[in-house]
Write a structure and sequence with these properties.
- 63% of the residues lie in helices and 2% in strands.
- It has eight helices and two strands.
- It has a two-stranded parallel sheet.
- The radius of gyration is 15 Å and the shape is globular.
Length: 164
């Protein structure tokens, strides 16, 4: 199923901002996972974006190993949410779809500010899957779902670009 934004703009903003609390870029593999290949790639690809978000928005997010939730600083989350405050409902819809399909508000914001291309943002969002496919091969069912998300993400990025 394609991602959809909630109808109310405030709900869209709150939903997208909530992703910063569990932003994909904050969850890294333990060094011994995936033969140690995944963690260095995550650090190299994702940390510069978290550093950028800290500099750009004053929002320093905490990085954790594994999938156990880590509490993020409320002030940092509010600063990231503020970045969405002035967006009209159309732009909020695009941000919402980009955030929910990637699992990362930071990636969506980096794309919106021209720091990343849609292709680069999507590649960063699917880094874990790429490493797994390199190691184990393609999973047909996972690839079908990934294609749905990729299409929704690129459609939202294109929609954003058309809004000017």
């Amino acid at each position: 199923p394609a991602a959809r934004a909630p109808r109310a703009p405030r709900s869209s903003a709150a939903d997208a901002a909530a992703y910063a609390g569990s932003d994909l870029l904050c969850y890294r593999a333990a060094p011994e996972e995936a033969d140690g290949a995944l963690r260095p790639r995550q650090d190299e690809a994702w940390q510069p974006l978290l550093d950028w978000a800290a500099e750009r928005y004053g929002a320093r997010l905490t990085v954790a190993e594994g999938i156990m939730p880590v509490a993020q600083d409320n002030a940092a989350l509010m600063l990231l949410a503020r970045a969405l405050g002035g967006l009209d409902p159309f732009r909020l819809t695009a941000v919402h779809v980009m955030t929910t399909t990637t699992g990362s508000l930071v990636l969506a914001l980096a794309l919106l500010e021209g720091r990343l291309t849609p292709e680069d943002a999507h590649a960063l969002a699917t880094l874990d899957e790429t490493v797994q496919a390199e190691k184990w091969g393609e999973d047909e069912e996972a690839e079908a779902l990934a294609q749905v998300k990729r299409t929704a993400f690129h459609d939202a990025a294109r929609f954003w670009s058309l809004l000017g």
